[in-house]
UniProtKB/TrEMBL annotation:
Localization per record: Cytoplasm
Highest taxon of the lineage: Bacteria
Subunit structure: Monomer. Associates with the 50S ribosomal subunit.
Lineage: Bacteria, Pseudomonadati, Pseudomonadota, Gammaproteobacteria, Pseudomonadales
Domain Hflx-type G: 198-365
One Pfam family cited in the UniProt record for this chain: HflX_C
Keywords for the protein's UniProt record, in alphabetical order: Cytoplasm, GTP-binding, Magnesium, Metal-binding, Nucleotide-binding
InterPro entries per the UniProt record, alphabetical: EFG_III/V, G_HFLX_dom, GTP-bd, GTP-bd_M, GTPase_HflX, GTPase_HflX_N, GTPase_HflX_N_sf, HflX_C
Task of the protein: GTPase that associates with the 50S ribosomal subunit and may have a role during protein synthesis or ribosome biogenesis.
This protein's name: GTPase HflX
Organism per entry: Marinobacter halodurans
Coiled coil residues, start to end: none
Recorded name of the encoding gene: hflX
């Protein structure tokens, strides 16, 4: 199902403006999806309707236009930039004498080509089987079905029923294996939480440059390409940040308008990395004319997966495509970094991005001025061991005045290891 030979498929694209739909599909984005699927779009048929036809989605006149286009261009497949019902797909295939796929089918095809890891392939297969379950009848309409009652029973299980049973068994098996993956991920996240290691997750509209940025930050060489859904499998890398220590950076699947719900469900194990993150880097293609709409779509998916409460730092990527634009940090009214302008391709602004990430993660960092006597030797040694000491000066009375910077949780851990209660700590007077 996953490793298929390259085929030079020629496609006719069909896009209708449906006035009864509040959020119309974007033709430009669908053409990009088709290109990402490795299919050649030989013709595009457009039109408008008040509402779709229940039987064929399009009207009789538009059907004739599509049929003529298929014959003239010798197309192998017709791709609809809409969600089609199983019966509409069957009826269209019968009329057009070629394969018909809707928007979800195209996205699933891209996912099947891109999945690389065992988990990614399982998730794609689950989404495909869910999608296929309602379309099984297509290839077996010539077979008789069983009937109930005396004298009306068929000769045992038909091929259609066998397929349905095997399909249900396969879906059940995949769910069990994905549950195991989800438990393993939960275990990894719990271990990171126990070790107080923050997770920074990259999210954003597909093709916004997340993987290129991930590679620039981590030198991980994750597959990155100028195509939709280049990344499907989550990649985790460990970073060391000043004042913060170890941080886990996660690259995730891109979002898209009207992402099919089956895909959101299938990739829930992957998307949980996003929901459990300490900070989200929302990567935005700042040169895209539709960036505001794309940002809204990402926010909608974050809400659907329960990640809308996670702190967000916006990363406006691809400033190299803007005229004479320099990297910078935009701050909120509270002075907190809210937006960073960078170029993942050229590396401009990456240092600025690191500073902003450190600042956002270090909102609970303490700057301490401590007075440590000879009896505080263990606490002093632990502060040096943690690399938290900025400066140290000995006073006339034998005390050491230590300037330290560390996170609140680390400070409490050091006090506990040194056997010192918080009320026993002496602080230097503020001048």
């Amino acid at each position: 199902m996953f490793e298929r030979p390259d085929v030079g498929e020629r496609a006719v694209i069909v896009h209708l403006e449906i006035s009864s739909h509040n959020e119309p599909e974007d033709l430009g984005e669908f053409v990009e999806l088709v290109r990402s699927a490795g299919v050649e779009a030989v013709d595009t048929v457009t039109g408008s309707r008040n509402q779709p036809s229940p039987r064929l989605f399009v009207g009789e006149g538009k059907l004739d236009e599509i049929r003529s286009s298929v014959l003239a261009s010798e197309a192998d497949v017709v791709l609809f930039n809409h969600a089609l019902s199983p019966s509409q797909e069957r009826n269209l295939e019968r009329e057009l004498k070629c394969r018909v796929l809707d928007r979800t089918g195209v996205i699933l095809d891209i996912f099947a080509q891109r999945a690389r890891t065992h988990e990614g392939k399982l998730q794609v297969e689950l989404a495909q089987l869910d999608h296929m379950a309602t379309r099984l009848v297509r290839g077996w309409t010539h077979l008789e079905r069983q009937k109930g009652g005396i004298g009306l029973r068929g000769p045992g299980e038909t091929q259609l029923e066998t397929d349905r049973r095997l399909l249900r068994a396969r879906i059940k098996a995949i769910h069990k294996r994905l549950d195991k993956v989800r438990r393993q991920r939960d275990q990894g996240r719990r271990a990171r939480k126990r070790a107080d290691i923050p997770t920074v997750s990259l999210v954003g509209y597909t093709n916004a440059g997340k993987s290129t940025l991930f590679n620039r930050i981590t030198t991980a060489h994750v597959y990155a390409a100028d195509q939709l859904f280049a990344t499907l499998d989550p990649t985790l890398r460990r970073l060391e940040l000043p004042d913060i220590g170890p941080v886990v950076l996660a690259d995730t699947v891109g979002f898209i308008r009207h992402l099919p719900h089956k895909l959101v469900e299938a990739f829930r194990a992957t998307l949980e990395e996003t929901a459990e993150a300490s900070l989200l880097l929302h990567v935005i293609d700042c040169a895209d004319e539709r960036r505001e709409e794309n940002m809204e779509q990402v926010d909608d998916v974050l809400l659907e997966i329960g990640a809308d409460e996670v702190p967000v730092l916006q990363v406006y990527n691809k400033i190299d495509l803007l005229d004479d634009f320099r990297p910078r940090i935009d701050r909120s009214e509270d002075g907190v970094p809210a937006r960073v302008w960078v170029s993942a391709v050229t590396g401009e602004g990456i240092d600025t991005l690191f500073d902003a990430i450190v600042e956002r993660l270090a909102e609970d960092v303490l700057n301490l001025s401590l007075l440590l006597g000879p009896h505080d030797g263990k606490l002093r040694a632990l502060l040096h061991e943690a690399g938290s000491v900025l400066s140290e000066e000995y006073l006339d009375n034998g005390d050491a005045q230590v300037e330290a910077r560390l996170q609140t949780r680390d400070w409490h851990q050091l006090l506990s290891r040194a056997g010192v209660r918080p009320d026993q700590v002496r602080y230097a007077p503020v001048e």
